[in-house]
Every structure is written in structure tokens, then in C-alpha cells.
Amino acid sequence: MTRIFLAICVVSSFLFSLACVQKGANSTTTSSGDTIKVGVYGDLTGQTSSFGQSTKNGIQLAVDEINAAGGVNGKKIELVVEDDQGRPEQAKTVVSKLVNQDKVVAVLGEVASTNSLAAAPVAQEAKVPMISPSSTNPKVTEVGDYISRVCFIDPFQGSTMAKFAATTLKAKTAAILGDVNSDYSKGLTQFFEEEFTKQGGKVLAKEAYTQSDPDFKGQLTKIRDLKPDVLYIPGYYGQVGIIAKQARELGMEMPLLGGDGWDSPELWKLGGDSLKNSYISNHYSADNPAPEIQNFVKNYKAKFNVVPDSLAALAYDAAKVLADALKRAGGTDSVKLKDAINSTKNFAGVTGTITLDDKRNAVKPAVVLSLDPAGSKFTFKETIYPEGMTPATNTATAANSNTTANAANTTANTASNSAANSTNTANATK
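RE: above sequence
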């Protein structure tokens, strides 16, 4: 009997120790009455882990600065970080943990809209505000009034590149190669095609791939034979780098166009020199000489030893917007905090001036960047504004002087309404 009792004690002690280790692994600080718990979730180990790491880093830098300046309302922000492995079902699970077990007052995440759409109903039901830094599908904020974002949405991004292709590159024909299983890719395909057609262009072909495909030469050969002026590839960096390489190997020298899903340091390793003569739509330019942007770039590089991509910049802005809302709400009451977030107006972020519309989407310009594989960097090309928005003065976006009005988009809200009429955007990613 004594032996059995001792064995039970040993096992119980081991399990208790393990539980303590697992609980502590998700939190950056020790919880106390002097902190405000904020949840962070994203892909830290899956196929888009570069996005998750950048997002986590951007939030951490913002919180470090906020806490160093005295915190919010006399309290420091405490981050509780969860890895959803890039899987929607796991995103739902970890946000449920953050809300119900960790008792966070707000949630920051995700990048992929599929994951945001899986997790958002959990936050909405619990009445815990969730700010997505970079999920661009219009449906994300339609989950409810506790869900918002600090990025522009897919209708604007897709039409931005179509506008750029038609007006700046003078393209008359285009082909599209997209991920058939990615609603992010399908959404951008739709909006690019719609706008390019409005501009008088013609889409000659739409080919598809999946993230698990090892080879894309079959689809690329079909496209090559049609000789389009541009090739639009609305996908993620993991496949885009390989597609670019194989396209150039087949003698395809036309400009390659994409979206913010290309923005990752891993892209240069995969695509190399094949990425010459390529352009993407994005949320900010690290080359922007505006002091606030260069200060952010400098601080991020000092902490993480890499130039911040757009996902890091958007995450930084999301954390700062939350802190600003906490101050204006005067505390962590969920209704007051939700209302403060949703009433964000003219917030000066590193990705531009952020104003949330009645759909809780950020109304802001996009930048077009050209790819410089020799320097492994994105170079500013031009800024494209929604119609009705004029270039800002004395703000970060004013430094981008080469601008183009986007006549196809009156406001982000108009784009959201247009997207709602489509049956293909219900689950778009990123």
C-alpha cells in the first residue's frame, strides 16, 4: 500500500509540474492585477509561419514601447501567445482558450482570413474585441461588431493591381495563376479580373494549383503559349517563389504581379533572380523616408535583426490601435473597449492613417512595390488611393509622392458591399 501511495504521489507531482510548464510557455509575463492581458494567435509553425512570426514580433515591439512608456491606464500589457499552426480548427481552439481560460480582454490576430473566420465567432460570442492586423477578406468583420481590422480589404487590393497593370504597365491582356484551395487567392482573382476588364483589358486564361503541388510547369506552359502582357499570381510566398523560377525557365519574361501574400523574407530564397520585373500590392513601404516609418524600421531591425515586412507593420499598428482604444475606454470594460476600437479615426500608424468605417474596415491607400532580388527588398513604386481619399500631408503616407487615384473603388465600404454580392468570397484567406 505504501508503494502504491508513493507511486501516486510521484505521478501527481510530475503531472502538476508539466501543467505548470505548459501554461507558462504561452505567456510572455507573469499575470497580476497590474497587467492587462491581451491574446495573440497566429501560425508560428505551419506553412505560413513567416507571417505568424512577423505578426508576433510587430505586436511585441509595440507592447514593449507601450510598457516602457508607462503602460496603459497605469497598467502594463501582458501578451498571451498561441500557435494555431495555420489551421482553422486550431485557430478556433486557441482563441477559445485565450477567451475562456486566460481571460484576455482583447485578441490580436490572425493573418489568414480562413483562420480569422474560424476564430472570430468565438470572440464575438464572448464579447471580447478582436482586431485582425492583416486578414483582408470582407467577411471577417461581418462576423460581428466585436471584430475589426487595421488593413484594407481584398476588393481594393485586387483592383489596385489591375489598375496598376492597365494604367502604369499599359497591359492589354493578362493571365491568372491562383491557388484553387485558397479563398484569399480566389478572392483576389475575382477582383483583379473584374477591374482589369473594366479597364478595357482581357484575361486570357485562369489556371489553378494547390499548395502541395511540387511543379507548376503544366499550367505555366499553357499560359506562355497565350502570350499575355502580365501574369497575376495571387498566392503565398511558398508557392510564388517556385512559380516565378519555373516561369522564367520556360522563357516567360512578362511582369509577374501579386499581392501582400508575397511579402516574406523567405520569398527571396525561393525565387531569387526570377523575381525581377515583378510587382505587388502592399500595405506600406519600408523605404518610405517618413521619420515615423524609419524609426519603426530601425527599432524593429535592432530587436529582430531583419527589415520589418508589411505583416509586422500591420501587427505593430494593431497593437497601438488597441492601446489607444484602451486609453479612450478608460479601462477594460468589453462594451466600452469595443466602441472605442470601432470609433478609431485618423490614427497615425506606420501603415498609414487608420480610420475604421461602419464595417470596421480600415479605409486607407495601398502601395505598389517592385521587387529587387539583388538587394532582397521591395522598392516603392507608387501609392494608389481609394476614390475620395486625397494624399495626406504631414503623415507617413505623404512621403510617397507618386500617387494614382483608384477610380474603381469609391470607399472600402462600397467594396465590401460589392463583395457581399459574390458567392466566391465567403471564406477568403488573408
